[in-house]
């Protein structure tokens, strides 16, 4: 099969073409280059791995193993001015059949959380989104999993308690076959 410009109905386009093959009987030695379509599938999961609460009385650390929801209690008299440090683990898993790259991962920074580039060397803030290219040159083979870490902080007041919903996604990926 070769690429060739062909004119159809006055319009010239490029097509993959081959010579005409006349098969009169069973022929088994002709390879026309057909291949099964491979699957490219990167999956992102985000977990809370640690929460640290610092206030005038104490510093408490809470460790979690792949938690999607976590809760900490702060005594009502110490809520005001407490600093909460949230450590997230973002895992990228290749569920497909093709090796690929997570070129750009974004986190939708929730209102009330603060980003510090000193705590996150592979992350940067652009508009309202956090970006990391920490895995852009790291190949993720089928069945493999890679991870990046993100640390955000929140200074507590009596009015900003409650649930924090923090989302992330693979913004740009790549594989050598160009499979989407």
Descriptive notes:
This protein has strands at 2-8, 11-17, 42-54, 59-67, 83-94, 101-108, 114-115, 123-126, 129-132, 145-155, 167-174. With 180 residues, the protein is an all-beta fold. Strands 4-3-5-10-7 form a 5-stranded antiparallel β-sheet, with no helix packed on it. Strands 8-9-6-11 form a 4-stranded antiparallel β-sheet, with no helix packed on it. The protein has a two-stranded antiparallel ribbon with strand order 1-2. It starts with a strand and ends in a 6-residue tail after the last strand.
Described by the principal axes of the CA atoms, the overall outline is elongated
Instruction: Give the overall average pLDDT.
Output: 93
What is the distance, rounded to the nearest whole angstrom, between the alpha carbons of the first and last residues?
Answer: 24 Å
In N-to-C order, the SSE pattern is EEEEEEEEEEE
Main sheet strand line-up: 4-3-5-10-7
Largest sheet: 5 strands, antiparallel
Strand residue percentage: over 45%
Question: Helicity, in percent?
Answer: under 10%
Q: List low-confidence stretches.
A: none
How many extended strands?
A: 11
Q: How many alpha or pi helices?
A: 0
- What is Rg? 26 Å
- Counting helices, strands and paired strands, the structural category is mainly beta
Short recap of the structure:
The protein is mostly beta strands. The protein is built from no helices and 11 strands. A hairpin with a 2-residue loop joins strand 8 and strand 9 (129-132).
SSE blueprint:
Blueprint: E1 2-8, E2 11-17, E3 42-54, E4 59-67, E5 83-94, E6 101-108, E7 114-115, E8 123-126, E9 129-132, E10 145-155, E11 167-174
Antiparallel strand pairs: 1-2, 3-4, 3-5, 5-10, 6-9, 6-11, 7-10, 8-9
